[in-house]
Amino acid sequence: MATLKTLQMNEEARRHDAATWAERGRLIVRSVQNLSDTLLSKARRMTMMNILMHLYLCIRLTKLKTTVERAFSEEKVTLQDATSRVAPVRLRLGDGWDAFNALLVTRVKGDQGFRRVALRRYALQDCRRRRGNRYDISWQSFMLPGSQASMSIVRSSNLTSGDEPLHGASCPSCVSASTVTTSEGTRW
Fold it and tell me: In a 3-state reduction of DSSP, which class is residue 75?
């Protein structure tokens, strides 16, 4: 009978151990579920924050891009030089006319008419306001943002291009003869 009683006690201990392990398993499962719910909630919150941050940055970038584009478009003048090349020129040049002249000299270096540009023997006209260049007013006052400037070279018979004197008056771009002669020389 002792063995029967021992068997019953062993069976009872096994049931108790099984119940204990089952309870521990349920606690572990509940803990894992709570942890996964917490992690899922935090992941959703982080995803939402990332989406909101992305939208905010997209809006700010669009506004910044628009502001920069507007600023750059308003700060430029379109120049058509004597050879009919068109290029944007920054309106806010450091030294005004001196900086503009240095820009032109650099731009036409090696081209026909270089010497005349270097000697400032060119005329510039604001196409929108139909007025010619005047060195007594500032560059920024002469040209307005978004303006178009047209350049022509003034040519006198006593000027030289390189080593040889200039004869006649022809455009360096199209080589056509000029019909306009002023006291300063010939313009085309």
Answer: coil
